[in-house]
Amino acid sequence: MMTLTNSEIAAVAQRHEQARRTVTPMKRITLDHPQMTIDDAYACQTAWVDQQIADGCAVGGHKIGLTSRAMQQAVNIDEPDFGTLLDYMFFPNGTELAATKFLDPKLEVEIAFVLGDDLSGVDHAGAGVTAADVIAATDYVVAAAELIDARSYRTDPDDRVTRTVCDTIADNAANAGIIVGDVRAKPDDLDLRWVGAIMKRNGVVEETGLAAGVLDNPALGIVWLARRLAPHGVVLRAGQTILAGSFTRPVACRPGDEFHIDYGPFGEITCAFS
Asked: Which contacts qualify for 200-205: CB closer than 8 Å, 24 or more apart?
């Protein structure tokens, strides 16, 4: 159900872009639109993505968020969400980023699926996609860290109210980037459920986890996304990178922080923030 007008949706998208470009946190959207629905939030997200594309950016993939119990408990939400990965969001392993270019940057530990074929399932639309379809369509999987950076305050400094799932969804699910590992593997060559990671910040272990934390199998995160997008006519395309969802809680990125994420035989990811 929609409650926002087209002009209100466009204004929300512009507010998020202004906050991103100026690195200035904004008030939550639901403060002005308390009646906002999930459908409204995704419409705002789509409007923002469409504007990015109109400005010359390209879609590089999609992300799924809040698929694990750890992440849902971290933000007091009980359903997954999704967003779009744009070309300028991809960073190489070992990258150094300026923390001051982000509002509230945090890192999450994930697995990325890079598709070799369109993921359309037997119905050729995505609604009937299965885990077996995901494995068959995937060219390779690779370790990844998602950089999240919500543009609105987590807790409003004035009324102390926290943002809602609608605020997060309208904000492209708080996505800001993806750091991709170097070790590629065929998804059927390993048990994805048992892929584990140890995240260290400045040499201190901050988070550990198993990929089974994502819906019991990260491939099921991709299934959820394909089915969720199908009614909107969106198909996950060959060449796209799909983040399956985090299996750790987010860790804050501060100036001077150095991160090392050890995936064991699946390689490692390093990055730093200046």
From this structure: 200/259, 200/260, 200/261, 200/262, 201/251, 201/257, 201/258, 201/259, 202/257, 202/258, 203/258, 203/260
Give every CB contact of residue 25 below 8 A, 6+ residues apart in sequence: 19, 103, 104, 151, 152, 153
The predicted-structure confidence for 93-139, as pLDDT tens digits, reads as follows 999 999 999 999 999 999 999 999 998 755 555 568 899 999 999 99
Q: Outline where 5-159 has alpha helix (H).
A: 6-22, 29-32, 38-54, 69-75, 131-137
Nearest to 250 by CA among 206, 216, 212, 218: 206
Could you tell me the pTM of the whole model? 0.92
Q: φ and ψ at 188, to 5 degrees?
A: -95, 5
Structure tokens at 172: 């492209």
